[in-house]
Structures are given as structure tokens and as C-alpha cells.
Design brief:
The chain has two helices and two strands. By secondary structure, the chain is α+β, with helices and mostly antiparallel strands.
Length: 56
């Protein structure tokens, strides 16, 4: 599931945040197939952020 999407048209950057790593990897693996953000976005990158600590 997608949590957040941010598109900066001037710099041609789209940032999509996923809450689950598996969802992000699935979307990333097919990112070039569908041109979801238009034909001008040419590179795709995936970044892994540290998990938030669990509060008990």
C-alpha cells in the first residue's frame, strides 16, 4: 500500500513512500513498464529507510 506521493514537476522527481518493503519492491520492479509519471521520468531509485522503533 502506498502511503504518500509527492511529484515535483520542475525537477521531474516523483517520490512515492510505501509502508511495506515488499510493496515498494514490487512497484519498483515494474516502474519502467507503465510510465506512471509520464515519459520524462527516466530513472528510478529505491531507498530503504530504518524502521521506526516499536513502542511497547
Amino acid at each position: 500500500m502506498e502511503c504518500e506521493t509527492e511529484i515535483t514537476k520542475k525537477s521531474k522527481i516523483a517520490k512515492v513512500v510505501f509502508s511495506k518493503r515488499a510493496d515498494a519492491e514490487r512497484a519498483f520492479s515494474s516502474s519502467g513498464k507503465y510510465n506512471a509519471f509520464g515519459p520524462s521520468l527516466l530513472t528510478y531509485e529505491i531507498k530503504y529507510l530504518p524502521s521506526a522503533p516499536q513502542v511497547s
